[in-house]
Write a structure and sequence with these properties.
This protein is mainly beta. The protein has a single domain, classed as Beta Barrel (Thrombin, subunit H). Helices cover about 5% and strands about 50% of the residues. It is built from 1 helix and 6 strands. It has a 6-stranded antiparallel beta barrel with strand order 1-2-5-4-3-6. Strand 3 and strand 4 form a beta hairpin.
């Protein structure tokens, strides 16, 4: 399933480098988003090497269908706005 990386999970003065907010196309409410908790997320880079970084959906974020995902290691800043795959 296609989804998009929106932003780092952050507060006013700090951010969490491995936590990202992900917007799922088919998810419009918190109930829809909670169905994806526990599923795997894979981000693939666009370079020659095409590195893959794996993560897992941890919880819903807000009431509009956005989820939080925790990755094995942090994604680069260029990952914001790119697509991820949810299995």
């Amino acid at each position: 399933m296609k989804a998009k990386v929106i932003q780092f999970r952050r507060g006013r003065k700090n951010y969490t480098p491995r936590h990202f907010l992900i917007e799922i196309e088919e998810s419009n409410s918190r109930e829809d988003a909670s169905k994806f908790v526990g599923k795997n997320v894979v981000w693939t880079s666009n370079g020659k090497d095409a590195k893959k970084i794996n993560g897992k959906v941890s919880s819903a974020h807000g009431n509009k269908g956005v989820v939080r995902a925790i990755f094995e290691k942090g994604l680069p800043g260029q990952a914001i706005g790119t697509d991820v795959e949810i299995n």
